[in-house]
From TrEMBL:
SUPFAM superfamilies: Isocitrate/Isopropylmalate dehydrogenase-like (SSF53659)
HAMAP family associated with the record: PdxA
Binding site for a divalent metal cation: 172, 217, 272
Stated name of the protein: 4-hydroxythreonine-4-phosphate dehydrogenase
Pathway annotation from the record: Cofactor biosynthesis; pyridoxine 5'-phosphate biosynthesis; pyridoxine 5'-phosphate from D-erythrose 4-phosphate: step 4/5
NCBIfam families in alphabetical order: pdxA (TIGR00557)
Additional facts recorded: The active site is located at the dimer interface.
Binding site for substrate: 138-139, 280, 289, 298
Length: 335
């Protein structure tokens, strides 16, 4: 059996990403995939020594044949740090390095050297301070790099009675800008991508999607806001006429209850902190962040760089394992 190749970018060098990459190959049999790290081999070797983990690093040129998976061996597609990194201490000089690891993984997926990319966490502030003021996150960077109009950020966990998937209509926006970003055109693009990818990547023939309102009580018939009446409800009605199974707009404070979720395949929240706190409460550390609509598979962890844990060996590897497993499953379904 040919195992899928998952390109794992090691993220912010001062964070836990490098050691998570080392940790997952201590027992590769749980993965059923070939994992290749994308990062600085010296950084990985130094972190391995610091933690006392006997990991063998094998430097491989992108596109060259990868060694068969083996406990304690990690293939690496090398990218060099701008400056040596210290665990827990951000250095904006390495911002370009982090983005270069993403670029290498994207290109590998495009030309078939990797079947999917999985990303360890990066630090947005360090990248902005490092000379990339327009950077807002992995999701938007990947959208632009892949040249697509719309992508959808979705987190998923199976630590509930039924898989819980929460997608976002808007991603990394200040709350003051969310209402103006909820438009008919934007919602239409997001919902179409979400429905199509649930079918293509998750094998759900006719996905049922619950849609949150924007305002408290979904606007209370216009008394608490009119976005539901003027934008969200008409958009959903038009898309239902196209055959999509959409329920809503529903009040977000009652949507996330078993009565609704037991009959849904995904939830579409209007903004980041409307839906993700619920998912992370239910499955933090056992959830994956998924970017839909790229034309390739990309997953990530559900947490940040955890600078305070970097170099201690205490960082939980559960979310990265889930991200790798989800990437493998999505790749298999797409073929």
């Amino acid at each position: 059996m040919t195992l899928p190749v998952l390109a794992l970018t090691t993220g912010e060098p001062a964070g836990v990403g490098p050691e998570l990459a080392l940790a997952v190959v201590r027992d590769w049999r749980q993965l059923a995939a070939t994992v290749v790290a994308v990062g600085d081999p010296d950084l990985l070797a130094e972190r391995s020594r610091l933690l006392g983990w006997p990991i063998e690093l094998e430097i491989v040129s992108p596109g060259a044949e990868l060694p068969p998976p083996s406990d304690g061996r990690l293939p690496v597609w090398p990218v060099s740090l701008a400056r040596p990194s210290t665990p827990g201490r951000l250095d904006p000089a390495n911002a370009g390095y982090v983005l270069e690891t993403l670029d290498l993984a994207i290109e590998a997926c495009r030309r078939g050297a990797a079947d999917a990319m999985v990303t360890a966490p990066l630090h947005k502030g360090a990248i902005i301070e490092g000379g990339y003021p327009g950077f807002t996150g992995h999701t938007e960077y990947l959208r632009d790099a892949c040249g697509v109009e719309e992508v959808v950020m979705m987190l998923a966990t199976e630590r509930t009675s039924r898989p819980l998937r929460v997608a976002l209509a808007t991603t990394h926006l200040p709350l003051s800008r969310v209402a103006e970003a909820i438009t008919d055109a934007g919602l239409t693009r997001v919902i179409r991508v979400l429905a199509a990818e649930l079918t293509r990547r998750f094998g759900i023939a006719s996905p049922r999607i619950l849609v949150c309102g924007l305002n408290p009580h979904a606007g209370e018939d216009g008394h608490l806001g009119r976005e539901e009446i003027e934008v969200i409800a008409p958009t959903l009605a038009r898309l239902r006429d196209e055959g999509l199974d959409l329920v809503g707009p529903l009040p977000a404070d009652t949507l996330f209850t078993p009565r609704h979720l037991d009959h849904a395949d995904a939830v579409l929240a209007m903004y980041h902190d409307q839906g993700l706190p619920v998912l992370k409460y239910a499955g933090f550390g056992q959830a994956a962040n998924i970017t839909l609509g790229l034309g390739m598979v990309r997953t990530s962890v559900d947490h940040g760089t955890a600078l305070d844990l970097a170099g201690t060996g205490l960082a939980e590897v559960g979310s990265l394992r889930v991200a790798l497993q989800v990437a493998r499953q999505m790749t298999a379904r797409a073929h």
